[in-house]
């Protein structure tokens, strides 16, 4: 892409200036990065735009479709004219949906990424004023941001300019662990270290910390401590012989205290595996069960009597990082 070391600010592309005063910006991404928002329904999230590489202060950012994006860093604020619970990010597809957590309070909200930005290398995301207000933070606040796949009804709320329901608050024990991963400036990946390359920031000690396996264990332990105790196991449902493959209490034990029903009509599916051992491992982590489908082992949580209960479990599972989970009706 033809670009000097700094991208000049352009108003002709239809993108507003990013920030005034404390939210000042000094560069702009390519106009092709703007994602159209049309109508409602799932089609309103398409086409998904990735865009060309661009440069800010000598750092080149290459937009890419990263599924397991999960980082800690600092939030910036956008100008007053930007509306909705929306945000700007440099590399994720537009639109994308992310959970943003305040590392000061644990409050977590759902944000729709619609623009390229922020145009400062020391901010991970730029939030619209409505998003700033819902999250209850200010310019430069420490945050965690991870990509998620929310249900359509929550996407529709954000597309309409309204707030989606708040996510589960992050417990203090996990916040303390996340703060230890927070660099003095810039951002640091919590998952795949290749995210540092995706973000366009070289993994130097000043910006990206080295991953410590012991610290990863602390994050996992803190998330496990945050879970509420599981329900007492019940008898497996009749008429579903596949449930003999249930793991450690099986379908009667849902995570995050969502009531289950042996005769329920809905379940939350987390994945299908060709290697049964991998399915069993995931099922133990979520207190789910394994069902066979041909050569595949399918991991599910439930069953649930109503779709509303299944959606509650789905939201809580996604808040724990299982972003590919979805609801499946049971025959």
Task: Average the pLDDT over all residues and give the rounded result.
Answer: 73
| Strand line-up of the largest beta sheet | 3-7-4-6-5-8
**CATH class wording of the largest domain:** Mainly Beta
Query: What's the number of extended β-strand segments?
Result: 13
Class computed from helices, strands and strand pairing: alpha+beta
Backbone CA Rg: 21 Å
Name of the CATH homologous superfamily of the largest domain: RlpA-like domain
Residues in helix, % = 10-25%
Largest sheet: 6 strands, mixed, barrel
Quaternary structure state of the chains depicted = single chain
Q: What string, H for helix and E for strand, traces the elements in order?
A: EEEEEEEHEHHEHHEHEEHE
What is the first-to-last residue Cα distance? Answer: 52 Å
Beta-strand percentage?
15-25%
CATH architectural name of the largest domain: Beta Barrel
CATH fold descriptor of the largest domain: Barwin-like endoglucanases
Molecular shape: globular
Q: What count of helical segments does DSSP give?
A: 7
Structural domain tally: 2
- Detail the poorly predicted runs: 1-22, 24-28, 31-38, 196-215, 224-254
